[in-house]
Structure formats: structure tokens, C-alpha cells
Amino acid sequence: MTNSVKNREIAAILYEMAELLELHAENRFKIIAFSKAARAIESLKEDIVQVCREKRLQSIPGVGKAIAQKVEEYLRTGRIQSHQELLAQTPSGQAELLKISGLGPKTINMLHEKLNISNLDDLEKAATEHSIRRLPRMGETREKNILRSIERYKKRSQRILYSTAEPIVNEILTYLGGIAGLEHITAAGSFRRGKETVGDIDILATATSPEEVVASFVCMPMVEEVLANGPTKASVIVQETIQVDLRIVEHRSYGTVLQYFTGSKDHNVRMRQLALGRGYSLSEYSLTRLADSQDLFYETEEEVYAALGLQYIPPEMREENGEIEAALQGRLPSIVELKDLRGDLHVHSSWSDGRASVQEMAEAALVLGYEYIAICDHSPSIGIAGGLVPEKLEQKIEAVAAANEALEGITILVGTEVDIKADGALDYPDELLARCNVVVASVHMGQQQTERAITGRLISAIENKNVDIIGHPTGRIINQREPYDLDLQAVLEAAARTGTALEINAYPGRLDLNDINARAAKDMGVRMSINTDAHDPKMLLNMKYGVNVARRAWLEKKDLLNAMSLHELMNTLKSRQ
Ligand code: DGT
Ligand code: CA
Ligand code: CA
Ligand code: ZN
User: For position 413, what pLDDT does the model report?
Assistant: First the structure.
């Protein structure tokens, strides 16, 4: 076997350490030692894992005792303590600047000294304003190159939405799934963990003839560039910037490999520590009993977790947030699944800006097996979205009641998505809100207000007894818009106190609340509702993206309004009035 992933990973860390040391103006010889070792490991013909196992690390030119220890530490634990410490001592903006091609530690220090540049934004601003070209040894060309590098870096480092990765994953699984001799195939990594965005896509498979599978993979019509191509693995680029890694692995190791490549990295670090504590070493290849070096192979992940005395941990929970402790004690919650949901409490219709009638939306919901659907159109201040004036809402209440009579098998609830106005007042009078079954209240305007103002608006909506759910509570849009300046803690406290639910908006670019906030909400006893905010029947299918968030937040059926039966739901909504 030749040079492996580990060689490259370790070399990258050692290079980074050299640069960080230079940034801190450390001893010249120390810096040279790190970059020399990095170069040697990068160009080493053998797999570093093998060299380490045979205790030959110090035979690599440039690798002395200190660096050999760091390599061992990395292979054992997945990280290097002194590297973490260096990173921690470096302002994060400066560490990021090292990733801009053409910028080394010397230039970064000089830019800091002369122009007080300490992060990417500062750098971009200075280059745009032409203050960099005036510095010694810089000039116009370098300034332009810096701007170009920043642009490339930003594009490269933008994570893609889960919903962008999903059709790519499905196409690959279908494409490769048809090859004779292919056994298992699945996505791993952050995609399998249901993260809202993914950095790259990881695919694992087992097959009787790996070469054939790899050959088909790199020749798929969607592939635009082949980055690496070996007997059992390959990396390609699709859709301009999206990287897909394929690994064909041994059948008997499938359980440990899948566990390893599903991550997260932090979860795996804890898993390996736990294994060591029990006298085993856990790798992607096997669980090795240290006493007699016996390799134990597992074909399923369930067996791997069981072998370490853990309950099976669903991929979405593997973020090193207490899941291992809970699994050790056998008290992992039973997290919600798509099939547990009985309705959608926030969809639009052609009464406002939806593209389908009430009947069409309800029929689509019936096909999904739902018990109820709430039609929540906009209120008047959202003029561009066809918000309904009060008389129109009254007409709609009648129309929905008639549609509900006419349609068997599902209950159509009349609702509204009432705007929380800039002064905190709601866009309909209380009497009218009281006539709706479901009231979602959302902020759509005045999003730039101060933390105090926005928090106050949300809390006054939460305290209104007619309001059942706060829509997309933080207002963020992934990769596009930051959340409102919000005191989320205060909002959660108010919701817990009043029993008002918070939405997990399932639109894949919103996912608001996100996983972390939803977990915090659950811990404070706040109820939530996963709503699609669908504007046409197809968008009802977005529910699964909200379920990913809920699972990552450890939510159970009892935490969700729309996991209730219609009867329970109506009682819960009424009890608030
Ligand atoms: P991403 O792609 O940034 O959204 O996140 P992941 O979690 O998919 O990370 P990725 O693609 O770098 O690696 C896939 C999995 O491989 C990761 O979740 C955990 C596993 N893994 C475990 N230990 C290591 C390690 O030491 N280095 C790397 N690169 N991956 C590791
Ligand atoms: Ca990945
Ligand atoms: Ca990857
Ligand atoms: Zn809406």
C-alpha cells in the first residue's frame, strides 16, 4: 500500500503548525523542523499508519522523537494537543488568513502591524480601498491577487445545503446500486448525520470488484473533475464546487468503517477513548483487543456500539453533546421520526401567496397520511405576499369550513400567519385571531431593530393568548442572512412560561429554529412544531428536513405539537385561551 489519507492529514497539520509558529514569531529552527517533517511525511511512499505500527517513525528523515510522538498521538486520538493549543492561542481571524493562498505568516504579521488587519473582512476592505498596494513589496498586482484569492476561498469554504446534497446522493446511490457485485452502499459523514449543511459528500460501499465500482463512479455523467482515483477510492467534483468521496471497504469491517466515517470527529474521539478505557483500540478497520492484539470485526454499527456497552446512537445525535453518557446509562431518548408527524400547522394557499387552493393543499396532505393541516395565509401588512384584510380573512374562515365539510379523511384547520408589526402589535384584532384554529405569528419587517426591540416584539406576541406558534423565530437564512439580534434565552423563557410553541421551519434554507436552539428549547420545556411553510403541495415534502433538525435536537414526540392527534391538539390549543 502506498501513501494514505493519514499521511496527507498529518502533513497538513504539521504545515499548519509551522505557519502558526511563524505567525507567533517562534524559534526559526523549530519552524523549519515542522515544515521539513511535513514535507517528508507528505512525500513518503509508505502508509504512515504502517510505519507507526512497526515503530519506524524516527527512520523518516526529518522526524525526530518529538514529532514521532505527535504522529502517534494523532493516529491514536485523532488530534494533536499542541496543535490545538497553538490554534487556541491564535486569534481565529488570523488563523483563517493563513488559508488565503498567497498569504504567508510574514505578510499577515506585516499587514497586522501596518494596517491593523486581523481577519478576512479587514483584509478584503483594505484591498478594495487600495491601501495594500502602497505597502512595501506589495503593489497593485499582489493586491488584485489577494482579492481574487479571497473570492476563491469564500466559494470553496461555503457549505452546501443538505437539500442540495440530497439529490446528488440519491443519484449516486441509484447509479452505483445497479452495478453487479455491489453489496452495501450508503452516504456517511455529515449528510448521514442530517446536518443542515454539508462540506463534502462521503459515500461508502462494499463490493466484490471494487475497481469496477470506482471506474463507474468517476465516469458518472455528473462528474466534472476527478481529483483522485485509486483501486478502492476516488474523489470527484460535481456541480462546480461540490466534492464527493467514495470509499470501497472490506465487507467484514463495514460496521466499524461506517461508524468511523459517519463521524462526527468529536464523537469518534470520545468513542476511541471509551474503547481504550475498556482495553480495546477502535479503528475504522476493527476493534482490537489490546491484551492479545486480537481483531474483532463487525459488519454492522449496532454491533460496534453494543461491543462497547452502549445503546445504539442514531447518526443525528453523534455530535459529542452528551449522547455517549446517555447511551452508557441506557437513557437515550427515543427521537421523533417523520412517520410520527400527524399534520402540518403552517402552509399557505392561493388566498395569499400560495400557488394552490385550500382543497389542493388538503388533498396533498391527505395523501401524506396527515390527520390535519392548517392553512395560514399572510396578514395585511405583508402586502407583497397578498396578505388578507380582515374582511377577507372572515370570508376565508367560511370557505375553509366549507372545504373541510366537503373533504373526508382529513381536518382542514383555519389559520393565519399574522405579522408581528414593528411596534410589537399583531396585524389582526384579538377577536379575529380568536376565530382561527391556529395562529402562527412571525416577524417579517423591522428585522434590523435592536436586540431589545426585537426581543420585546417576540415576547409580546408570545404572551398573546391567541398566538399558538412563533414562526421562523430567529429569522436566519442559511448562508444569506444572520438571525435577528435576539435575546433567545428570554424568548425561550417566555415561551416556556406561556406554553406558546416555537416553530422549526422546515424550509431547507431556513431550518429555524436550528438544531442547537431547538435542543436548548427542549431543555427549557418549550414545545415546538415542525412546519413546512409550504406554498405549494410539493413543498409539503420538506417536512423531512425539519425532522432532521428535530432529531439532532433530541426531540421526542411529546415535544412536538404536530405529533399530537387532532383531539390532543385541539385540547392543547384551546387550553391556552
Ligand atoms: P463536513 O464534510 O465538513 O460536512 O463534515 P463531515 O463530518 O462529513 O467530515 P469529513 O467529510 O471531513 O469526514 C467524514 C467523517 O470521517 C467525519 O465525520 C468523521 C470521520 N473521521 C474520523 N476521524 C477523522 C479524522 O481524523 N480525520 C478526518 N478527516 N475524518 C475523520
Ligand atoms: Ca463530509
Ligand atoms: Ca469527506
Ligand atoms: Zn409562512
Answer: 98
Q: How far is CA 393 from the centre of its chain?
A: 38
H-only helix segments in 499-532: 515-523
Tens of pLDDT, residue by residue over 146-156, are 998 898 788 77
Residue 1 has pLDDT above 50, yes or no: no
**Ligand 1 centre distance from Cα of residue 41 (Å):** 21
In this predicted structure, what is the pLDDT of residue 2?
Answer: 46
Q: Give the residue, out of 202, 267, 269, 319, with the most ligand 1 atoms within 8 A of its beta carbon, to mutate for a pocket test.
A: 202
Closest atom of ligand 1 to CA, residue 245 = 11
Ligand 1: centre distance to CA 397 (Å): 51
The alpha carbon of 43 is separated from its chain's Cα centroid by a whole number of angstroms, namely: 34
Q: Which residues contact 496 (CB under 8 A, 6 or more apart)?
A: 524, 525, 526
What's CA 167's distance to the chain center, in Å? 17
Beta strand 411-419 pairing with 438-442: parallel
Residue type, 221: P
The CB density around residue 451, as the number of other CB atoms within 10 Å, is 12
Three-class SS of residue 347? strand
Instruction: Band the pLDDT of 3: cuts 50, 70, 90.
Output: low
Nearest to 53 by CA among 347, 281, 367, 312: 281
What residues line ligand 1, using a CB cutoff of 6 Å? Answer: 9, 78, 189-190, 198-200, 202, 260-261, 263-265, 268
Q: Which atom of ligand 1 is nearest to the CA of 284?
A: 22
Q: Distance between CA 573 and CA 567 in Å, rounded? A: 10
Closest atom, ligand 1, to C-alpha of 268: 22
Q: What is the mean pLDDT of residues 43-71?
A: 93
**Residue 264 CA: which ligand 1 atom is closest?**
18
Backbone angles phi, psi at 406, to 5 degrees: -75, -25
Report the phi/psi class of residue 130: left, alpha or beta, with left for phi > 0 and alpha for psi in -120 to 50. Answer: left
Whether the Cβ atoms of residue 539 and residue 572 lie closer than 8 Å to each other: no
Q: Return the best residue to mutate from 16, 261, 283 for the ligand 1 pocket (most ligand atoms within 8 A of CB).
A: 261
Domains defined for the chain, CATH in brackets = 5-156 (1.10.150.110), 160-248 (3.30.460.10), 260-328 (3.30.210.10), 338-576 (3.20.20.140)
